[in-house]
Amino acid sequence: MIKSIYDKIIELRLQLRYHNYMYYTLDSPIISDSIYDELCIQLIKLEKEYGQKKSFDISDRLLNQIGGKKLYVFSEYIHKTPMLSLNSTNDISDIIYFDKKIKKYLKNTDNIKYYCDFKFDGLAVNLFYENGLLVSASTRGDGKIGEDITKNVFTISSIPKEIKGNDFPKKIEIRGEVFMTKSDFFILNKSRISSNKKIFSNPRNAAAGSLRQLDYKITKQRKLMFFVYGYGLFHYKKKINSHYERLIKIKEWGFPLNKDFLLSGCINKIINFYNIVNIRRSKLNFEIDGIVVKVDSIFLQEKLGYVEKYPRWSIALKFPSFDVETRITGVSFQIGRTGVITPIAHFIPINIGGVTISKASLHNIGIIKKLDLHINDFILVYRAGEVIPKIRKVIISKRDKSIKKIIFPLNCLSCGTKLLYSTNLVSYFCPNDFLCPDQNLKKLIYFSSKNCLKIKGLGPKNIVKLVNYGYLNTPVDFFNLNINYLQKISGLGKKLSNKIIENINFSKNVSLDKFICSLGILYVGNSISRLLSNYFMSIEKFLYTDYLTLLKIKGIGTNIANSIIKFIQKKNNKKIILNLIQILNIFFISK
Question: CA 539, 543, 547 angle in degrees (round to 5)?
């Protein structure tokens, strides 16, 4: 019991570290904010209940981390004062609890004023001015150390390069949000489509990606905007004890401040402001995902202080996603690289936030049962984190006799193998690995991706063509490709083919964790691969391990251990791995 709880805590920590890295460092989130918040809540509950046990490493608590580590293509910048994150909630009643908690902590029931403004969905930046001149600009990073993006920030016209007037502090940190307007985002994606480039999924990713360009000229082309929302270092000759008044002073110095805000000590007025902004947000030309509520008094802010990575005196109240009604027309089933069968709901196309969507993942059987979903049901659909389409609920009152039960296939639709059920995944999976055509194709694409061997230049479309030509059947075949094979693929000329062969040869040097991950073993992703690599330190020891040895590894439970043993004991899988060992230089690197 205790070991399984310990494993769950380790697993959650590793997952959250990975998603922090994807969101803050690479600006490429692969889960929605709501799913991330659910993982955080699970970890907090488990650590609170079991975290005092000696067997747990409390110093390793991921939740003390702010943002993400910097990318090494940028130099470091140490903030003069910490650049903290905000505690957030989706529950409007939490603002009442927040107010009560503030007053209880201060032992003060008087009317405390709050400054409320928009929670912009962009990238937080810290601007440092000395003697009125912009000296440096950086991202939040981990809260203490960010990335130096000064050159790129200098291209943003709404960020002053020089403070107006002559009564400004000698040194000051101005903090705000860099974002892209919806109209400019639309134009950018339109141009990328015409140039056959990958489009950005939302304005936030577009802004973050633009601000982190190595070539500042690209940043300049992207038309980024800026709004100030706060400050760090602020030593002004006149004492200003109000957050609102400080922002007004900053505005006088030439910084853009959003005109929509509320200064009030009445919680009902704050809730009303939240509701009005929520209704209006679709008409704004920039993305916001909530409001931020801050104690206005600087004196009280200092008295309240901080807890972990959050200030006690502030909270973000996030908006719910837009719901749109449509009707289920059918359900298809997709097979992933690990063999897991994912049901996909297809519905009458709808438009949410300017994006037309016609399908959503149902993830597993458990979701279908929880929703009580049938074909021909009327449903409410939303975009989690304004990105991922999800089904909110079934409109039972509109259900009629035309509904049909969703039935999972008994056999793999690709290879015909009988599907097995995973209680852990609450779904079926095909155990045929590399011998299942659709699963094998996904494995090959993943094997060559940047998460694994990082073979540049191929891409999923060319891999599909190589498979259709018969040149690619297993991962071993990547290393048998030659220029003649590649040049038969439309779009691959001699120059690009030569480059791909060079990249294939370069990819032969691969770390142990990435190699294990590249195999596409059920339950074994980046995090588990790192655990396995750190324990075995060589591919041979991993390949000839046993079930009991795997269970000794912290973070490896019975399901993962069983899956690994079944995978490496299959003759075809072992043959592929042994061949790859002969070709590759698989080295151990501690992570």
Answer: 130
How many CB atoms sit inside 10 A of residue 507's CB? 19
| Same domain? 352 vs 446 | no
439 and 432 Cβ atoms separated by less than 8 Å: yes
Question: Residues 394, 455: one domain?
Answer: no
Backbone torsions φ then ψ of 388, nearest 5 degrees: -90, 120
* Given the residues 8, 53, 119, 454, the one annotated as active site: 119
Last residue of a domain, one of 31, 64, 97: 64
Question: What is the Cα–Cα distance from 203 to 400, expressed in whole angstroms?
Answer: 40
Residue 417 lies in a domain: no
CA distance to 270, 419, 451, 460, 571, per residue, from 430 (Å): 52, 5, 23, 22, 17
Provide the CA 291 distance to its chain's centre, in angstroms.
21
The pLDDT confidence band at residue 5, using thresholds 50, 70 and 90, is: low
Residues 457 and 349 in one domain: no
467 plus 562 within the same structural domain: yes
On whether both 140 and 286 belong to a single domain, the answer is yes
Characterize the bridge pairing of strands 76-78 and 378-384.
unpaired
For the stretch 486-534, pLDDT in tens is: 988 887 888 889 999 999 999 999 999 999 999 999 999 888 999 999 9
pLDDT value at residue 57: 40
pLDDT digits (tens, 9 = 90+) for 147-202: 888 888 999 999 999 999 888 899 999 999 999 998 898 888 888 888 777 777 77
Both tokens of 121, joined, read: 């969905």
Secondary structure in 3-state letters for 180-219: CCHHHHHHHHHHHHHCCCCCCCCHHHHHHHHHCCCCHHHH
Give the residue from 398, 417, 452 where a domain finishes.
398
Instruction: Look at residue 353 and tell me if it is in a domain.
Output: yes
CATH of the domain at 344: 2.40.50.140
CATH of the domain at 460: 1.10.150.20
Instruction: Kindly state whether residue 425 falls inside one of the protein's structural domains.
Output: no
Q: Give the pair of three-digit tokens for residue 204.
A: 């936030």
pLDDT of amino acid 64: 45
Say yes or no: 171 and 265 in one domain. Answer: yes
What amino acid is encoded at 232 in this protein? G
Cα separation, 347 vs 375, whole angstroms: 9
Is 113 known to be catalytic?
A: no
Residues 288 and 377 in one domain: no
Q: pLDDT tens digits, residue range 308-339?
A: 678 999 999 998 777 889 999 999 999 999 99
Q: Name the pLDDT band for 58 (thresholds 50, 70, 90).
A: very low
> What whole-number distance in Å separates Cα of residue 576 and Cα of residue 583?
11
Q: Which domain holds residue 363?
A: 324-398
Number of domains in the chain: 4
Assigned domain for 210 exists: yes
Beta strands across the sheet bearing 324-335? 355-361, 341-352, 324-335, 378-384, 388-394
CATH number at residue 133: 3.30.470.30
Distance set, CA 411 to CA 362, 420, 523, 578 (Å): 19, 9, 21, 30
The single-letter DSSP state of residue 471 is: S
Point out the least confidently predicted range of 146-155, 201-210, 242-251, 263-272: 201-210
Same domain, 438 and 580: yes
Return the SS3 of 112: coil
Cα–Cα distance measured from residue 591 to residue 589, given in angstroms and rounded to the nearest whole number: 6
